[in-house]
Amino acid sequence: MIQKGTTPEELNRRKQAVLPAWISTNYERPIELVDGEGFRVRDSEGNEYLDLFGGIVTTISGHNVPEIVEAVQRQAGRIMHSSTLYLIESQVRLAEKLVELSPIRGDQKVFFVGSGSEANEAALLFATHYRRSSEIIALRGSYHGGSFGTMGITGQASWRATPRSALDVSYAMNPHPSYSPLLEGMSPERRAEACAKDLRNLIETSTAGHIAAFIAEPIQGVGGFIEHPEGYLRRVKEVLDEQGILFISDEVQTAFGRTGSAFWGVENHGVEPDMITMAKGLGNGLAIGAVMGRSEVVDSISPKLHISTFGGNHISSAGALANLEFILKNDLQKNADEVGGYLKGRLEALKEKYEAVGEVRGRGLMLAIELVGPDGSPDPAAAMRFMEACRERGVLVGKGGLRSNAIRISPPLTLTREAAGEAADVFEDALAALGAEVR
Ligand code: PLP
């Protein structure tokens, strides 16, 4: 069934004529998704898929969730926009809910924006103002956004369209060997220790010595769902605390129960950040982001003024509130833990069986497998073929990592065990179709 009277090829030709060349779509024959329900989506030709990338780690509660749709429709039928010049009840309620759920202690403030990049921009603004310093430390392999400032703290060459940064940025050593080959062969404890030592050394030897903030994702998302070793962020926090350096946890991908074992990704590491940035899952795909942080830091720019015209508007706040209520009411974090644990087990079984499957990593419903060649080196071509084979079999996944060979799995947290099993069967079929060697 072809809707809108156009084929994907035709739509793609039109897109290429008027959208930037660097906006790439997945798949040789791009897909136009037109309908969705829960963790299933349908394209314009009537093909159905399991959405195992959850939009782009956005649709955390699933597609077309009646409670969220109704909240948005109800609000749109009343008033769509008024701005922060007026009171917005849903925005205040959303901020209260986030503070209630926050892992940060003490007084906090929430500033709403329209995206993850803007959330990080705002956090950087508050940190540099509060600390009266423009020095920032980020991690190699990080991704923090596509705006000028956030691109400047992103530690991945392929996402750095400019060598310039608005800030003085230093990159700390990433404790994962794919970003720091020197660490190859070391135990996770040794890697955690080595990288915390390196951070101290970096500050002492290579900076002006007055750092505003250290920013890190609890699990690096675009970087390929890279988990930090146990103890790493705790050791890092000790170094930061010695010098009063703020810690910004970029939770654009890891918040709201995504990791299963905690509501906020940073809670898996037992450290308390000064600010948390969020977007993607906050509105289940609606354009809303936020920075939540210690009041004295967020309010430090006062009496200067700052505004986001669309941040936390009526519709996105009402939708995000309904989304948070849905996540909590249905205990999606627990489901992410259980179904994610099962799916990770199935992925590990594939690693045992097939040479082409390298590292399996992640937690909850934020999981990745690396596709590797016979010598164990990253194999991006195999990852492409694997994605296409999964698509042909009705499963959509994401891709990422330094070498683009990591298959990223981040479905809505409503995924059932049966659907996870269905996906794992498809993965095995796809590996067999690729001609992957059995160990
Ligand atoms: N931070 C992280 C960890 C992200 O993964 C992303 C987007 O992928 C961003 C920030 C930027 O978010 P946005 O694309 O909404 O600006």
UniProtKB/TrEMBL annotation:
<protein>
    <recommendedName>
        <fullName>alanine--glyoxylate transaminase</fullName>
        <ecNumber>2.6.1.44</ecNumber>
    </recommendedName>
</protein>
<dbReference type="GO" id="GO:0030170">
    <property type="term" value="F:pyridoxal phosphate binding"/>
</dbReference>
<dbReference type="GO" id="GO:0008453">
    <property type="term" value="F:alanine-glyoxylate transaminase activity"/>
</dbReference>
<keyword id="KW-0809">Transit peptide</keyword>
<comment type="similarity">
    <text>Belongs to the class-III pyridoxal-phosphate-dependent aminotransferase family.</text>
</comment>
<dbReference type="InterPro" id="IPR049704">
    <property type="entry name" value="Aminotrans_3_PPA_site"/>
</dbReference>
<keyword id="KW-0663">Pyridoxal phosphate</keyword>
<dbReference type="InterPro" id="IPR015422">
    <property type="entry name" value="PyrdxlP-dep_Trfase_small"/>
</dbReference>
<comment type="subunit">
    <text>Homotetramer.</text>
</comment>
<dbReference type="InterPro" id="IPR005814">
    <property type="entry name" value="Aminotrans_3"/>
</dbReference>
<dbReference type="Pfam" id="PF00202">
    <property type="entry name" value="Aminotran_3"/>
</dbReference>
<keyword id="KW-0808">Transferase</keyword>
<keyword id="KW-0032">Aminotransferase</keyword>
<dbReference type="InterPro" id="IPR015424">
    <property type="entry name" value="PyrdxlP-dep_Trfase"/>
</dbReference>
<dbReference type="InterPro" id="IPR015421">
    <property type="entry name" value="PyrdxlP-dep_Trfase_major"/>
</dbReference>
